[in-house]
Amino acid sequence: MNATRFTKAKMAALVAPSTSLNVNPQARIAWLAKAKESFVNPSVGNREKYDVILQTLWPVGHGIPGPIVTQDQIRAAIDSFQAQTGEKPYKDPFRRMRELQGEEGFLCIVKEGVRYQLVSTSLTVKRTPRSKLPAETWRGLLTKYGHRCAVCAKDSNEVRLNQDHKIPRTRDGSNELENWQPLCDECNNIKSTQCRGCELNCYTCTWAFPETYPRLQINDSNKELLKREAIKQGNPINEVLNVLLAGVLSNRSKS
Predict the structure, then answer these.
(1) Residue numbers in the chain where pLDDT is lower than 50
(2) Is residue 115 a contact partner of residue 56, using CB atoms and an 8 Å limit?
(3) Per residue, what are the HEC states of 196-246?
(4) Helix and strand counts by DSSP (H, E) for the chain
(5) What is the CA radius of gyration of the chain?
(6) Tens digits of per-residue pLDDT, 69-123?
(7) Residue 139: helix, strand or coil by DSSP?
(8) In whole angstroms, what is the distance from residue 154 CA to residue 93 CA?
(9) pTM, whole model, 2 decimals?
């Protein structure tokens, strides 16, 4: 059921916003207040960020569907809120956005590229707030992975490592220790985006089990050579790469 729900959310397209000034402002205020009361995340700071995001997606004077809002606008709104409260600019506002669309049940927020829109006021069932590993357990997991990101292998001295569910909770991933791995911010963000709406088998996914299904990595010089060859042939770079690999591996199997 969760996978179907998220697929529908992913497929929802941005629509023409309502700019009617005849919208009852009390309806907006009441919905925002109800939404704020419904947050399940226990962190006061996170709930404040959720409220800022929702107010940005449904500004004064707009109806629903709300305006199409860019990531830069959302970041600016949160940074403005941070400045008003004497805090530094916020590092990862889009983690809060993913939580709104996930465990907080705001699938009425749709995303297309770097743009977001509040397309309705309907809410779906909340999920249990995200849990964290106890400090000692987390230290043990970091030791197991050599204090490196499970996917890109960047060291914890270079990047911040996050606690990640290998199989997402939206796909019934458990809180058992074997379902956790450390991921850097970049890999964690990409994995979250890739997982949203995905219905493929998690157990053969490079993001969930990189130790078994490692990502293919091509160094920069070879990427440039591939790019030049693709331009020369007028073919997509992935097609060029697969043709080259098939030819080399086929010749090796014959020898």
Answers:
(1) 1-12
(2) no
(3) CCCCCCHHHCCCCCCCCCCCCCCCHHHHHHHHHHHHHHCCCHHHHHHHHHH
(4) 9, 5
(5) 22
(6) 999 999 999 999 999 988 888 888 888 998 898 888 898 999 888 899 999 998 8
(7) helix
(8) 23
(9) 0.57
Rounded CA-CA distance 215/206 in Å is 6
Contacts of 150 (CB under 8 A, 6+ apart): 164, 181, 182, 183, 187, 210, 211
Distance between CA atoms of residues 122 and 196, nearest Å: 19
Q: How many CB atoms lie within 10 A of CB 224?
A: 11
Q: How far apart are CA 141 and CA 164, in angstroms?
A: 11
Query: % helix / strand / coil in the chain, to the nearest 5?
Result: 50, 10, 45
For residue 44, the tally of other CB atoms under 10 A from its CB is 8
Burial of 90 (0-12, 13-18, 19+ CB in 10 A): middle
Under 8 Å CB-to-CB from 176, ≥6 apart: which residues?
none
Tokens of 27: 């309806």
Q: Are 79 and 90 in contact (CB under 8 A)?
A: yes
Q: From residue 65, how far is each of 6, 9, 20, 71 by CA, in Å?
A: 19, 15, 10, 18
Would you call the peptide bond into 134 cis, given omega within 30 degrees of 0 as the criterion?
Answer: no
Burial of 185 (C-beta count, 10 Å sphere; 0-12/13-18/19+)? middle
For 52, 91, 123, 222, the CA distances from 35, given in Å and listed in that order, are 12, 24, 9, 50
- Please give the C-alpha separations between residue 129 and each of 46, 102, 197, 233, in angstroms, as whole numbers: 12, 10, 20, 51
